[in-house]
User: What shape does this take?
Amino acid sequence: MAIADAAGLPVTLHTASASRYFITLVEATVNETVTVGRPRRLVGDRAYDCDPLDGRLAADDIELIAPHKCNRVRPATQDGRKLRRYKRRWKIERMFAWLNKFRRIVTRWEYDDQRFTGFVHLACSMILLRRYL
Assistant: This one.
């Protein structure tokens, strides 16, 4: 999982085993932030539509912006104004496209999670260096 800033540059990365309920990894990803401060808003896709997750993030002063699932039973918690920010979700997709240019990350030759995480951090560092140099 990854969190990018408003420019689409990587801020936080968290690697874990594949899980059906990846929304359980959101808080761990937020806690690994390498920048000063924490994100004020998180934009996610429909899979992030979870009221308990929204409540836990709101307790940390983080606003969750995610469109509601089509099978939602409870009343809507977001209006259209917040969902306008969802249009900027392409920036995180662009960051993943930048990461996919590194063949070693895409094919994942390492079986050890720490080595793979190290290569992902190295790739993110290279992305940041290209941006600022």
Notes: Residues 70 and 82 are 18 Å apart (CA to CA). The chain has six helices and four strands. The radius of gyration is 16 Å.
